[in-house]
């Protein structure tokens, strides 16, 4: 479909700067040339795109808001959002790779790391030379991370780390993992675990029907001796990992608009070309209802993200506001992926079209970074003051 058909129904582009539009265009061009021609095969074969992290590094998609002195680009939050949107138009796996590296690995090192940690890790993470993963979720504790069991003990000249993390994006590929564990007082702290440390393994999770172009696995810590300089000194408590989630959830809110746009544009074009009963199917009211609702929901999601980005640029976005955007926009995108597939009839189940892939990916996206229901409860708490967890 022609790129000019990408919806901007409320003229939101007028609210972007020239720099925003240039950044969006450069990521869009890269997605068109690198992701779109290869993604169906990668997803069908359950393989990741070759050299994905280095390619993302080359286009400046890793840690775009990290200061330039540490290898980032010092960009604003709307630029970050636009990058995520374009990446997820290609595939949620590509946005996931950039989300984890940027918001879950570079963000905590930049916010809570020592000067030595920032200089050691951030430039290599920004270029994609080093791959990071983020370990919060455990086999027995997903929505309730404060009950985590992974712990470390102070052994004098090092920490001794034991436990396991599950469902970890890029764990089988990672060079380092920012992981969250309890100290001897039961307080959550962050540690940087490096591949090669004795007792550290990263088994892959096989047979996913979702995010098939992304690697997922475990992080297993068996009596690992972690050097003391690998503790993140700047934060104690669950607010450490949850602040990272604020950044990643914000990026997802933008990202999923990209997946929805890809499905919408495909459905519009198909509905104009496919003829039944002697007419284009786009001339039938029932198909028009679907398309009209898609455009309405995409437009609402775009406005939500743009204002959330403004709030974030001013450091005024509350976790509950971010939660609302994550929940609303992921639901919007998964609904559009499922409904738009129907517009394509039987063709909609084929790999030549993106709907099934996006719909399957979005089943993970609606679950990770806080499930849809957890985000509902966060809004419920914000409204009423009553904790319903
Ligand atoms: P609660 O008692 O409410 O809070 C504990 C402490 O944390 C503070 N806090 C936050 N701080 C910053 N940002 C937030 N969003 C925060 N939410 C809470 C809070 O102020 C408190 O601080 P303090 O100083 O008083 O101690 O915590 P709770 O145990 O009741 O849990 C709350 C709940 C359920 C909302 C939270 O734990 C939650 O969000 N659960 C969902 C877990 C989740 O999202 N996991 C994501 C794992 S990472 C992932 O999925 C990556 S996928 C990436 C990809 O591939 O793209
Ligand atoms: P559970 O917490 O067991 O929830 C099961 C169901 O119960 C859900 O529907 C949930 O909404 C509901 N529920 C739970 N508590 C309540 C309640 N109080 N009230 C009402 N309903 C409730 N984690 C990481 O740390 N790092 C990663 O990189 C990462 N990548 C991931 C990649 C993929 C592909 C996937 C699928 C997950 C990833 N995750 C990652 C884990 C993800 O964050 C968790 O799956 C998610 O937080 C939910 O946890 P859970 O799967 O244990 O579900």
From TrEMBL:
<dbReference type="InterPro" id="IPR052033">
    <property type="entry name" value="Glutaryl-CoA_DH_mitochondrial"/>
</dbReference>
<dbReference type="InterPro" id="IPR036250">
    <property type="entry name" value="AcylCo_DH-like_C"/>
</dbReference>
<dbReference type="Pfam" id="PF00441">
    <property type="entry name" value="Acyl-CoA_dh_1"/>
</dbReference>
<dbReference type="InterPro" id="IPR006089">
    <property type="entry name" value="Acyl-CoA_DH_CS"/>
</dbReference>
<keyword id="KW-0809">Transit peptide</keyword>
<feature type="domain" description="Acyl-CoA dehydrogenase/oxidase N-terminal">
    <location>
        <begin position="17"/>
        <end position="129"/>
    </location>
</feature>
<comment type="pathway">
    <text>Amino-acid metabolism; tryptophan metabolism.</text>
</comment>
<keyword id="KW-0285">Flavoprotein</keyword>
<dbReference type="InterPro" id="IPR046373">
    <property type="entry name" value="Acyl-CoA_Oxase/DH_mid-dom_sf"/>
</dbReference>
<dbReference type="InterPro" id="IPR009100">
    <property type="entry name" value="AcylCoA_DH/oxidase_NM_dom_sf"/>
</dbReference>
<dbReference type="InterPro" id="IPR006091">
    <property type="entry name" value="Acyl-CoA_Oxase/DH_mid-dom"/>
</dbReference>
<feature type="domain" description="Acyl-CoA oxidase/dehydrogenase middle">
    <location>
        <begin position="133"/>
        <end position="223"/>
    </location>
</feature>
<comment type="similarity">
    <text>Belongs to the acyl-CoA dehydrogenase family.</text>
</comment>
<protein>
    <recommendedName>
        <fullName>glutaryl-CoA dehydrogenase (ETF)</fullName>
        <ecNumber>1.3.8.6</ecNumber>
    </recommendedName>
</protein>
<dbReference type="InterPro" id="IPR037069">
    <property type="entry name" value="AcylCoA_DH/ox_N_sf"/>
</dbReference>
<feature type="domain" description="Acyl-CoA dehydrogenase/oxidase C-terminal">
    <location>
        <begin position="237"/>
        <end position="378"/>
    </location>
</feature>
<keyword id="KW-0560">Oxidoreductase</keyword>
<dbReference type="InterPro" id="IPR013786">
    <property type="entry name" value="AcylCoA_DH/ox_N"/>
</dbReference>
<dbReference type="Pfam" id="PF02771">
    <property type="entry name" value="Acyl-CoA_dh_N"/>
</dbReference>
<dbReference type="InterPro" id="IPR009075">
    <property type="entry name" value="AcylCo_DH/oxidase_C"/>
</dbReference>
<comment type="pathway">
    <text>Amino-acid metabolism; lysine degradation.</text>
</comment>
<keyword id="KW-0274">FAD</keyword>
<dbReference type="Pfam" id="PF02770">
    <property type="entry name" value="Acyl-CoA_dh_M"/>
</dbReference>
């Amino acid at each position: 479909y022609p790129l000019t058909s990408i919806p901007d129904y409320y003229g939101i582009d007028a609210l972007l700067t020239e720099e925003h539009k240039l950044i969006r265009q450069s990521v869009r061009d890269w997605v068109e040339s690198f992701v779109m021609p290869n993604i169906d095969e990668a997803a069908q074969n359950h393989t990741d795109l070759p050299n994905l992290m280095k390619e993302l590094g080359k286009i400046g998609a890793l840690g775009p808001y990290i200061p330039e002195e540490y290898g980032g680009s010092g960009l604003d939050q709307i630029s970050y959002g636009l990058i995520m949107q374009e990446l997820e138009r290609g595939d949620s796996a590509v946005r996931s790779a950039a989300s984890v590296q940027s918001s879950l690995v570079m963000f905590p090192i930049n916010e809570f790391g020592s000067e030595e940690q920032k200089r050691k890790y951030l430039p290599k993470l920004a270029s994609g030379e080093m791959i990071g993963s983020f370990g919060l979720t455990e086999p027995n504790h997903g929505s309730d991370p404060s009950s985590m069991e992974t712990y470390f003990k102070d052994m004098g000249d090092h920490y001794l780390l034991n436990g396991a993390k599950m469902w970890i994006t890029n764990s089988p590929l990672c060079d380092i993992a920012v992981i969250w564990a309890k100290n001897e007082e039961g307080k959550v702290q962050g540690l940087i675990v490096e591949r090669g440390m004795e007792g550290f393994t990263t088994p892959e999770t096989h047979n996913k029907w979702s995010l098939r172009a992304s690697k997922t696995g475990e992080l297993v810590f068996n009596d690992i001796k972690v050097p003391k300089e690998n503790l993140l000194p700047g934060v104690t408590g669950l607010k450490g990992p949850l602040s990272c989630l604020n950044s990643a959830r914000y990026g997802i809110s933008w990202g999923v608009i990209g997946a929805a746009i890809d499905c919408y544009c495909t459905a519009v074009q198909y509905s104009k070309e496919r003829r039944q009963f002697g007419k284009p199917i786009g001339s039938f009211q029932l198909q028009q209802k679907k398309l009209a609702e898609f455009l309405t929901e995409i437009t609402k999601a775009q406005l939500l993200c743009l204002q959330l980005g403004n709030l974030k640029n001013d450091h005024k976005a509350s976790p509950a506001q971010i939660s609302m955007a994550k929940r609303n926009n992921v639901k919007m995108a998964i609904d559009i992926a499922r409904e738009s597939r129907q517009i394509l009839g039987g063709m909609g189940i084929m790999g030549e079209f993106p709907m099934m892939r996006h719909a399957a990916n979005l089943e993970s996206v609606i679950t990770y970074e806080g499930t849809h229901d957890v985000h509902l409860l966060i809004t419920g708490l914000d409204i009423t003051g009553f904790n319903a967890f």
